[in-house]
Design a protein that fits this description.
single chain; alpha+beta; two-stranded antiparallel sheet; 4 helices; about 30% helix
Length: about 190
């Protein structure tokens, strides 16, 4: 008789727990149409990087509102590494990576997830950018002003070139007014 009560009590407990879980689920708001990507306001990190980096920090200017900043970091202790990631209008990833890391080729392979240098170059804004191709990311690479600048991501070469064309920079140590033209919403 004792065994039947234990099983009956277990099912009653499970039923009570199920009712509580169902109640909590209905009280938590669900918006299936909401965009899961949060845009990032990168102005503070940009100011920090512009003051601390020994090279002109690259930042896009004039991109449309469809470009959404999604990630940003500046790591002085890691060869002054600047990273600014975006989703382009087609929801493809595009990142600006800059660093004083040596050797530059090793740094480029790291941030492009093992892309390889090609013999091709692409003229963007009067500069010859080296074309890199990889299994995951492609890239445009430019070494100047003591730093390596990499525009990389899953986007097309044209989108990478569009990002490269939009880049502006300020001299190292300048107290810049960080007013990116792609104003991220604070989500």
């Amino acid at each position: 008789m004792r065994g039947k009560q234990t099983i009956r009590n277990m099912f009653q407990s499970l039923a009570v727990i199920g009712v509580v879980v169902a109640g909590i689920y209905t009280l938590v708001p669900h918006d299936e149409n909401a965009d899961p990507i949060r845009t990032k306001d990168y102005r503070v990190e940009l100011l920090t990087a512009q003051r601390a980096a020994p090279y002109p920090v690259a930042v896009p200017e004039g991109l449309g509102k469809e470009w959404r900043a999604t990630s940003v970091t500046f790591r002085r202790e890691q060869a002054h590494a600047w990273h600014l990631g975006f989703l382009d209008p087609s929801d493809q990833y595009v990142a600006i990576e800059q660093s004083t890391a040596k050797p530059a080729d090793k740094y480029v392979r790291k941030v492009t997830h093992q892309a390889a240098r090609t013999e091709q170059t692409r003229q963007v804004a009067g500069e010859a950018w080296q074309v890199w191709k990889g299994p995951k990311y492609n890239a445009l690479v430019l070494t100047a002003d003591g730093a390596t600048t990499v525009i990389t991501g899953t986007a097309t070469q044209d989108r990478l070139a569009e990002m490269a064309e939009s880049l502006t920079s300020q001299e190292p140590g300048a107290a810049a007014s960080a007013t990116p033209s792609v104003k991220p919403s604070a989500s």
